[in-house]
Every structure is written in C-alpha cells, then in structure tokens.
Design brief:
Helix content is 17%, strand content 34%. With 228 residues, it is of the alpha+beta class.
Length: 228
C-alpha cells in the first residue's frame, strides 16, 4: 500500500522530469514535505477544463454512495481491480492523474511479532523524482480528491511490504495522463511499464514518521540498529 510519502523535489524538478510539452497550469507553492499523509491537500498532476494542472488535491476518495454507507474515504486503488470496480472504473478513463513524489514509506512487520514494525524510506536510486499513477475525481460541487494506484511488490521490495505505489517512468507517466490513450492491460502496466524493484534503494528510518506532526528532513535519514 502507500499511506505516507515524501514530496521534497522542487516544482521545476518535477516538471523537468515529466518532460511534458503542453503548458502545465500550477497554483499554490510546492513546498518540501517529508511526511505527506492521507486527508491532506497534495500537489497533483491532473486535467481540469481540458488543461493539465499541478494543483493541491485532497488525498482520499469517497463517492456519495460510499459515504451513505458510513464508510471512510479510500486512499489506494489496486491496479488489478481498479479498471473494473464500481468504485474506480468511472475514473479509469477520464480521471487519470499523477502524484509527484520523492519517495515513500512502508512499515516492515516482524514475522514473529506482527505488532512490531519498522518504517523504511524507499526512493529512486538515482534520487530522481517519481510519478505515482493516481485516479482523480471531481464532485458536482467542484471539489477534487484522489487515490494512489498500487501494485504487488516483487524482488527486494516484497521483503519490506507486499504492495507498492505504481511508479511510472516519464514516458509512461505522460501516456497515463493522456485520456486519448487507453491504458495497457493491468498486468502490462504493473509489470512492464512501471518502475521495478531494481531501480529503488531503501533504508530504515525513525519511527517519528508515524506521527503527522513530524515533517522535516530528519525523517528520511538512515538510522542504525533498526528493529527489523
């Protein structure tokens, strides 16, 4: 899954990495964040009024029929089922979006003591910006919200957590944003077009990342003697 991530590259670094030809409309400052949590506005690449924008969007999707059941907003969508599910299929064609990210956190569980967890920070080995595939919704009142698409982890990443955000290289990210193109099958999207485990590095970090009140560069600093 993806429940916390970092977004500390500059706006220009994200725009240059995406290498998108059309003008991107931006609003608000893109300030460094080291502990981006659900339920907060997050800078997101998405289309609005036929323009590609980089604007703050609420992380957490809950359509009206879902809210009437008293269920909480969802923050992730599984790539294996999103295109066909009642929840996300309306967004799969015209609600595709990208989350610009600098890395993400996962909590590794102890096999012997499931309640014992150690957070790890996962990032591109070359320290370049990342782009997570996302789905964005606009309700009748004009409010927007989004979820991050996740896929199964493979190789070394699976040792940390069995799910990962669907991170796309620049070319695949641009195609994902283009509503004129139909996305590849979910298997190809996850296993061919997304970034795989060998491009990532990771290291254990402080448990302070577990509190949303903490948000500074110390959260991504490697620690010695992790619990797991």
């Amino acid at each position: 899954m993806c429940g916390r991530f970092a977004q500390f590259h500059s706006r220009d670094e994200f725009l240059n990495a995406l290498q998108n030809d059309p003008v991107v409309i931006t609003s608000g400052d893109l300030y460094a964040r080291y502990n981006v949590a659900p339920g907060t506005p997050v800078s997101l690449f998405h289309h609005h009024n036929d323009q590609l924008q980089l604007t703050p969007v609420y992380w957490g999707y809950s359509p009206a029929w879902w809210r009437t059941q008293g269920k909480p907003a969802l923050i992730n969508a599984r790539v294996e089922t999103a295109a066909s599910s009642r929840m996300f299929s309306p967004l799969w064609k015209h609600g595709r979006a990208l989350v610009p990210a600098s890395g993400w956190y996962e909590w590794k569980k102890s096999p012997e003591k499931p309640r014992l967890k150690q957070p790890y920070f996962i990032y591109s080995a070359d320290r370049n910006p990342l782009f997570f595939a996302a789905l964005c919704a606009t309700d009748p009142e004009g409010a927007t919200s989004f979820v991050i698409i996740t896929a199964a982890s493979h190789d070394g990443l699976a040792d940390i957590h069995d799910r990962r955000p669907l991170a796309l290289p620049a070319a695949a990210a641009r195609d994902w944003l283009d509503s004129r193109l139909n996305p590849s099958s979910v298997d190809i999207l996850a296993d061919v077009y997304s970034l795989q485990a060998d491009i990532f590095d990771w290291h254990p970090v402080t448990t302070a990342v577990g509190s949303v009140r903490n948000d500074d560069a110390s959260l991504i600093t490697p620690i010695e003697n992790p619990k797991i």
